[in-house]
Amino acid sequence: MKTNIAVASVIRLLMLVVLGTTISSFTSPLGMDSYKVYLNDKLLFKQFMTKDAPMQTISLNENSNSDQLTVYYDHCGRIGTGRTLSLLDGQQVLKKWDYQDTQSVQASGMVCKVGDINAFHKAGKTMKLVYDSKELSTPLTLVTIAAAGTNAKANR
């Protein structure tokens, strides 16, 4: 009788471990910053800020100048304050966008017009879109924008 109870306890424990592993595989890592990049209303990619996260590259060559690139940055479940996006060519800031503080996730999207970005494209030059806020100690490069004439799409 004691053997059956012990076996049942081991089986329950194994089922609990399997269930916990399965559930945790579908959730985001706790306490980790993340961001999403949209072109108009289409999600290009979502990225968690880990040290080994790959740098995403997009091309905006084929898009209309009226299209919009929107970035949502999440600081461990909170929206940053003093938020900015900067377009860089090397270390040179080509354009900087400042965004109002908000508590609403829906209003936290940082919008850049594709036309504003494409206006700075030079043949053979790759640019970076960099995020900064009061919550960060150093600005973070979120995405590389492929040089005009290349066919790079969002890496997935």
Can you put this structure into words, describing what you see?
With 156 residues, the chain is an alpha+beta fold. Helices cover 18% and strands 33% of the residues. It is built from 2 helices and 9 strands, in the order αβββββββαββ. The protein has a 5-stranded mixed sheet with strand order 3-9-8-5-6, with no helix packed on it. Strands 2-1-4-7 form a 4-stranded antiparallel sheet. β8 and β9 form a beta hairpin. The protein is elongated. The termini are far apart. The C terminus is likely disordered.
Please describe the topology of this protein.
Layout: H1 2-24, E1 34-39, E2 42-48, E3 56-58, E4 68-74, E5 84-89, E6 92-98, E7 110-113, H2 114-118, E8 127-132, E9 140-145
Parallel strand pairs: 3-9
Antiparallel strand pairs: 1-2, 1-4, 4-7, 5-6, 5-8, 8-9
Q: In a nutshell, what does this entry contain?
A:
The protein has two helices and nine strands. It is of the alpha+beta class and 156 residues long.
State the order of secondary-structure elements, H for helix, E for strand: HEEEEEEEHEE
How much helix is in the residues? 10-25%
Beta-strand content bin: 25-35%
What integer is the average pLDDT? 82
Main sheet? Answer: 5 strands, mixed
Total helical elements: 2
Provide the structure class.
Answer: alpha+beta
- Could you name the ranges where pLDDT drops below 50 across 5 or more consecutive residues? 152-156
DSSP strand count: 9
For the biggest β-sheet, the strand order reads 3-9-8-5-6
The first-to-last residue Cα distance is 54 Å
Overall morphology: elongated
Specify Rg, calculated over alpha carbons: 21 Å
